[in-house]
Amino acid sequence: MRMSAYIQTTSPHIFHPDSVSKRNWKQSAALLPIVLAVLFVSKWNGFQVILAAISGGMIGQWLFAKVSKAKMHFDGQSLLFPLLFSLMLPFGAPYPIAFAGGFISTVIGKEFFGGAGAYPFHPSMLALLIVQLSFPAMLSGAHGWTHEMALPDLAWGYAGGRLITSASAALSVSVLLLLWMRVIAWDASVVFLVTLVLFAYLLGEAILPLLAMDGVLFAAFFLITETVSTPTTRRGHRLFACLAAVTYVLFRVTAAHPTNLPCSILLANSLTPLLDHWIRPRLSYPKQENRTRPKS
């Protein structure tokens, strides 16, 4: 009998149709209502910022593959990370900065740390922090909702600030798509929002402006739920979301700055190895009791 038809592989021998690339494409598809809302409100200006960031990410992925002489794997992250980054940019952001941020999110944020599955920090937030610290004057429009603005202005995207604040109504549609496709850990999003509201209430901060500014609701469902730079266990992921919410409120109360949100998420990312070390997965089988050998 010929044995060449049999292939030996290592365990586990379990097949599932889900994959990392499929999850990336599903998250990118869920962002489509937000992109269309940005296009409707900004009249091509915000849409061109998104296109510039995506172009930077695609070109960065291609250049890195050429320089490193590695095979280019288009798993959707070179589209997803620049897209998330671009939605956190303010209105009127220069196109070269958007292009540079998309390039940074793919090359520095992901590839320099080893590629997919190896980056310790969220690539989009790392790119956002770098460009905001490098060009603070050109990106000074990321302020958000104020007390003089009405709720309809916030819901229909006329409150200004970041691009994501122009798509507050479309954000609910994108969140429903994420939940329907089952690509995020929704409990971490709930923990993040509940912790943020409770901690802000204890400090005497206004709840609605805090949720409306800086794209906090967007971060709860699209940034906090990232799977590589967050803890592997569900309990660790919830604690990660709690730490990110507490640090964001402290940063916001101490000094309101556009870098508060990326700094809080990146700080929580830096604690992910400790959370994985302290919070281990629970055993799926009962522990056996220590039995002593009977005396002879």
List the helices and strands and how they pair.
Layout: H1 20-30, H2 32-42, H3 45-68, H4 77-87, H5 95-107, H6 123-134, H7 151-155, H8 168-181, H9 186-202, H10 207-212, H11 216-222, H12 234-254, H13 260-270, H14 272-278
Quick structural overview:
Helix content is 57%, strand content 0%.
Computed CA radius of gyration, to the nearest angstrom: 22 Å
* Overall body shape: globular
How much helix, percentage-wise, in residues? Answer: 55-70%
Number of DSSP E strands: 0
- What's the number of structural domains? 1
Number of helices: 14
CA-to-CA gap between the ends?
54 Å
Would you list the SSEs in sequence order as H and E? Answer: HHHHHHHHHHHHHH
Beta-strand share of residues: under 5%
State the low-pLDDT regions, or none: 142-151
**Class from helix and strand fractions:** mainly alpha
Average predicted local confidence, pLDDT: 82
